[in-house]
């Protein structure tokens, strides 16, 4: 695993309350994503 020299802040996840890196994209449930995409059309 490559190490980055960039500093990353850890912030609490609004859903779980657990801390995660600030620059990590929020995970989305596959069923929620499907519903969102179908709603757009």
From TrEMBL:
A single cellular component GO annotation: mitochondrion
InterPro entries registered for this protein in UniProt: LEA_3a (IPR004926)
Annotated coiled-coil segments of the chain: none
Top-rank taxon, per record: Eukaryota
GO biological process: response to stress
PANTHER family for this protein: LATE EMBRYOGENIS ABUNDANT PROTEIN 2-RELATED, PROTEIN SENESCENCE-ASSOCIATED GENE 21, MITOCHONDRIAL
Protein name, entry field: Putative indole-3-acetic acid-induced protein ARG2
Species this chain originates from: Jatropha curcas (Barbados nut)
């Amino acid at each position: 695993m490559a190490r980055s020299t960039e500093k990353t802040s850890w912030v609490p996840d609004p859903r779980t309350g657990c801390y995660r890196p600030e620059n990590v994209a929020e995970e989305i449930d596959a069923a929620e994503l499907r519903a969102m995409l179908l709603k757009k059309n």
